[in-house]
Amino acid sequence: MQEPRRARLIDVARRAGVGKTTASDALSGGGRVSPATREAVLAAAAELGYSVNTAARHLRGGSIGTIGIVLPEVVSRSSYYMAFTFGIVTSAAAHDIDVTIVSPSVSSGRSRPIRADGLIIGDPLSGDPGLPSLMGSGIPVVTQEHLPEDVAGTPAGVVWSSHEAGMLRLFDEIDVTGARHPALLVAPDATDWSRQLVSGYRAGCAARGLEPVIAPVSFEASWPAVRAATERVLQTHPETDVIICGPDSSAIEVAAVLGRQGRTIGEDITVVSCVDHPSLPFLTPSITSIDLRPRDSGVACAELLIDLLEGRAEPGTDVEFPIAVVARDSTAHPLRVRA
Fold it and tell me: Which residues have CB under 8 Å from 321's CB, separation 6+?
């Protein structure tokens, strides 16, 4: 027989007819809660057999019970950031902690404190005007990847991956095709992720005696921007026989451009991606890519932040998160026609 689910803070709040923050304040003895409301919340907790969750009770800085996520604007059209966010939410829910989205574009002009016990910043962007105020807010921050050099401050924790090593592994797969003229679509210095990709790309080219060609696109490049960059690189470098796609989902648009120009992936050119996407296994041919495991990365960021807030991890903790290349059909065979 299945055991009944343990009552959660949200259950107590609903029974008492108050918000979750009010219920948390009432149970902890903090906040501006009237005696009548506090009594109603305590009664609801007793009726439901609720015991204060350890994670929520020990959050430093009070009883908010919420962590915040700061994401690039591209999140609305990125499968990567949707999965990353879901990982954070899933992990936080297991600790009875809420998650809120904090917009970096307005954070620098906020007139009130951020209502969160800690923040997770996904891929902090160079030049983002909101980052300095977030880093100086006094709230513990975990970043996914290291801060750009132009952003002052030290995160309480970092979850990072070796994207340079991932790029070099992509080159190992490209070697199978015999391609000798690689072009990289990327925002060169936007984030630690893109900086590492460029470093790995240059190292891979140098080790093979290849001429590097970097086609700059913004970190938040739309498909029209990816299309324009692809068309431009093919026009200025017609010898290109492999396009390495940086931005999330850009390989889909690159494949479409190649098709319109009469190029055939696996014949006279190939494509690989620095970010795996749910559609890439189903393209013809399927596209070799780097699996960044975004959902698990989100879980890792949330777990580190919660450990920091509870005192189980020391400030300054760096966690390397493993990623892997997924070899698919786009790099399975030598190109049969050389540009």
Answer: 159, 160, 161, 293, 296, 297, 300
- For the entire predicted model, the pTM comes to 0.80
Between CA 22 and CA 28 the distance in angstroms is: 10
Cis, peptide link before residue 212, omega less than 30° from 0: no
pLDDT digits (tens, 9 = 90+) for 287-315: 999 999 999 999 999 999 999 998 889 99
226 falls within a domain:
yes
- The residue with tokens 């093919």 is 234
Helix (H, G, I), strand (E, B) or coil at 120: strand
Question: Could you tell me if residue 59 is inside a domain?
Answer: no
Same domain, 167 and 243: yes
User: Nearest to residue 247, comparing CAs of 280, 270, 275, 266?
Assistant: 275
Number of separate helices (H) and strands (E) present in the chain: 12, 12
Its domain, for residue 133, covers 66-161+294-320
Instruction: Tell me if 114 sits within 8 A of 137, measured CB to CB.
Output: yes
